[in-house]
Amino acid sequence: VRLGERRYPTPGHRDARWTLRRELVTADGVVGAIEVAYHRPWLEPAEPDGLGPFLIEEVRLLESLSDMLRLALDRRRAEEAARRSRDRLELAFDAAGMGVWERDLISNEVTWSPHLARLVGFADEQRATFGGLAHLVHPDDHPAMDAFHASTVRRARSSSASAGPTAAGARSARPAGWSPTPTAGRAAWSR
What pTM does this model have? Predict the structure, then answer.
């Protein structure tokens, strides 16, 4: 296997007269190849198709392996980019002292981001029904939060998609007592 300028040979691999190579190009432009070789000197091409000792099934297998390798490399790069993006988003939430939520309009389940959950003293992401999390909002803020969520739900229902993110703030139960907690979230249809 070759990716860019780097080679990753299998033990015992060496250049040979009969080599089958399939090129690949990743989504970010890295050029590479995967190759196999016959090292037996007695194998001479008998087929007029130019494949030498390789069977058409071997050619197809190598093409398939090349595609799978390219897809795996693309996926790894995408996962790395997503991880870096999540890290930057967490940094922004930390700097703002903020968290996010999403309410599923079909199940009525509300999901709090891990950061929002930590702000109010939970170890990890929280999932509950909308009413199941109400005890974490200061009682005096319930009418405003109910109106805010009703408005978000109306917007989502009128668009048949997700209502875009909206910001809200309420006092929430934190380990040190009731404290303002800025949040952003959306109401969405089940995905």
Answer: 0.61
